[in-house]
Amino acid sequence: MLFFLLLILSAFILIQTAPIEQSESTTIFSTDKLPSNGSSLDYRILPYIGNGHVATVVFSDFIYMNGLYNGENGTSHRARIPSTLNWQFKINPSSSLYTLNVSSGFFIETLENDEIRIERYLLASQEYTELLIAYVVLTRLAPTGRKIVVPVEVNEQMTSIDIDFTVETRNNEHVLLSGKTRQVENSQFQKELLSVFVYYTPLPVEGLELDSEETNRTYLFVTSIDEIKSRAKQSFDYATNERQPHEILLSHVSRWNDIWSNGYVEVTGNDELQKQINSAFYYILSSLPPLSTRSEHKQFYGLSPGSLSRGGLLGEDYGGHSFWDTETWMFPSVLLFYPTLAKEILSYRIALRDSAVDNARLFGYEGWRFPWESARTGVDVTPDCCPEVRLYQMHITGDIAFAARQYIAATGNRDWLLNELGGELIYETARFWGSRAVYNNEKQQYEILTVLPPDEDAQPFKNNSVFTNAVASLSILLADSVSCITNKKTPQSWLDIASTLHFPFDNLTQTHLEYEGFDLKNTTIKQADVVLLGFPIMWSMSDQVRRNDLLVYEPLTRDDGPAMTWSMHSIGFIELGDFDKAEQLFRRSYETYVRPPFNVWTEAKSGVGAVNFITGAGGFLQAILFGYGGIRLKLDQLEFKPRGHLPNQVTKLIFHGLKYQGTTIDLTIDNKVYEIFVRAQNSNDSVPLTYKHGEHHGSLKLNDRLSFSIDSQLIIRRSVPLCP
Q1: Which stretches are transmembrane (predicted)?
Q2: How high does pLDDT run on average in the chain?
């Protein structure tokens, strides 16, 4: 399905006269008419191309770069770089086709009339991440003997509301814009304005042409963007002077093929669901650094709910800021297939630790307190409209610690703990909670007061959010669990907090209360909150309490809430064996949030809200992995317990390339059995693994293929614990 594309692409380039056909492939999204909003294109639901360093919505007016923000504190937002890719062909086509190819990571515009076919490929290069490429192929359809000129409408912009640009160079070879942002985000943590350099091929203001005897011609338009001038120039020169145009394209496709071969989910029996899964992974991965690139490594600056392709306008798409969405909703599905990219996500928080220290001190606490909204510097860039979330929504520090917990659970990466400040991240977030909790003599328990839970309708603040207290407790326990490696002893006072935090609970209904004093009958909540205790937190509770939490909080949740809520409810009902309810909620988690024709996610099901909403895509993928896949990643083991009731007429699910402790595992599930296959073991990172299934146990070796009955539990562990 996914991995023949390199050959297909080569054939497609050579056979230029093949007729336009709309593909039914599960990696191809095509339309003959782009979505519109009145008389103009509806950029909100157009797809984007990106590579974790640069990204742009196709045909839009702006390009965005990782870490490039303008605006002070709460006005910080992604700085808008004028697009070099938004020029349009001015012909009257007899046919047109617009295609997003998610397996190869490019967008194609194909136009035809009686004389000529135009194929324009747009891509954000995986080979050199500074590059955005427009690769254009003209193919003659009319007889030779007459020159053909294709007029092009070019609206070249060299100014930006966010960046002071200067045209340093303009010649036949390239244009160079050099610029600096207009405002620092925070003068304490950003001493200078941010630089950006844009090299690009002169735009086709005179149009494109085929000479009278030419049957085809290829044009390559290169844009190279970076904060370092020499790096932008080097990548531009590479693409324009050192490689043939088709080599640039094929190298990019090859690297996307490598991404998919590292990990993907295969569905049998429902092509539409397969397309949903493929596109969800594409949109998340396009905002992350490549698995393999020839560019220098750069600091990654986080995953925003609206992806790297959005965030240039205040009040839209969250300004490109990072929230708890990064670690809670997007991180888990990335971690299981691409642990190196998961580490990049955590590196963002570590890099901005000085701001987290200052943020804790600002409120009179110790350790690292991460901001609710983060951009370039790590100071809180929550807009002034929302002081409550800036002041009280501190569960994000626990969310980040939980992501670190899952990363250690999946990888056992001692080097990250000792040499890449992972141990500091874990210890200092625990220190924050150690300073934040207070003892209640009457209850004889610790409390965390004046916080805003994930349910943002609970304003301005509440006491003892059960979710906040759970992630705080796990944060402290994680620091203790890895102390044998970090040599950072966890104080007994912290451990006392972790073991005796107060969890509001209604004994009559046997239900967790979202916070102290929560009214189970007359309160409306924004989104998943208490149900997150069951998953992803996996807090210990009886099946009955788990069921009660799900049944009580579902009708209390706003109908217009975000998609991720229903993914978590679906996972819970799969756990409990209520498969009809689970499938109903699973469908609810994506069907009304994904917009055709390119499967772009939106935050709201009525209206639009934030677009390219990869938070929702992340929640949806978790329902596939942890719901129908039955996967549970715990600190000391990986568990499989698929229930066998697959969604939407699916007959088989295959998870290709799950990573655990340096071993790569394929998991295949049908309605009766599930099978694991040990595909690979990394000689540098893998550790010996053992498995246990009922009374059976043994070592797990390369090329082992083991089958088990559905609804039975398989446990895989390191043969030697991380901390014996």
Answers
A1: none
A2: 94
Dig out the tokens for 59 from the structure.
């045909």
What is the DSSP code (8-state) at residue 11? H
SS3 category, 15? coil
- What is the reported pTM? 0.95
Q: Specify the number of domains making up the chain.
A: 1
655 within domain boundaries: no
Of 684, 721, 724, the residue nearest 409 (C-alpha): 721
CA 553 to chain centre: 27
Q: Give the CATH number, domain containing residue 72.
A: 2.70.98.40
Report the 10 Å Cβ neighbour count for 445: 17
Q: Does some domain include residue 721?
A: no
pLDDT of 5 over the 50 cut: no
Cα 86 to chain centroid distance, Å, stands at 25
Q: What mean pLDDT do residues 270-281 have?
A: 97
* Helix%, strand%, coil% for the chain, nearest 5: 30, 25, 45
- Model confidence at 2: pLDDT above 60: no
Token readout for 346 is: 């955590």
What are the tens digits of pLDDT across the range 15-51? 232 334 333 589 999 999 999 988 889 999 999 999 9
**Contacts for 143-147 with beta carbons within 8 Å, 24 or more apart?**
144/212, 144/213, 144/214, 144/215, 145/212, 145/213, 146/212, 147/209, 147/210, 147/211, 147/212
Number of helical H runs and strand E runs in the chain? 19, 37
In this prediction, residues 79-99 reach a mean pLDDT of: 97
- Note the pLDDT tens digit of each residue in 568-594: 999 999 999 999 999 999 999 999 999
Q: Which of 259, 342, 275, 277 is nearest to 628 (CA)?
A: 277
* Residues taking part in catalysis: 456
Token readout for 125 is 């290069």
Q: What amino acid occupies position 426? A: I
Answer for the pair 499, 433: CB distance below 8 angstroms, yes or no. no
What's the 3-state SS for 435-472?
HHCEEECCCCEEECCCECCCCCCCCCCECCCHHHHHHH
| Containing structural domain, residue 127 | 5-262
**CB of 68 within 8 A of CB of 310?**
no
Any domain includes 713: no
∠ CA 241-243-249, rounded to 5° = 130
The answer, yes or no, to whether the previous bond of 460 is cis (omega within 30 of 0) is yes
Is there a domain that residue 582 lies in? no
Task: Quick: pLDDT tens for 421-456.
Answer: 999 999 999 999 999 999 999 999 999 999 999 999
Identify the CA nearest to 422 among candidates 468, 472, 488. Answer: 488
637: closest CA among 335, 410, 337? 410
What does the alpha-carbon distance between residue 245 and residue 235 come to, in Å, rounded to a whole number? 14
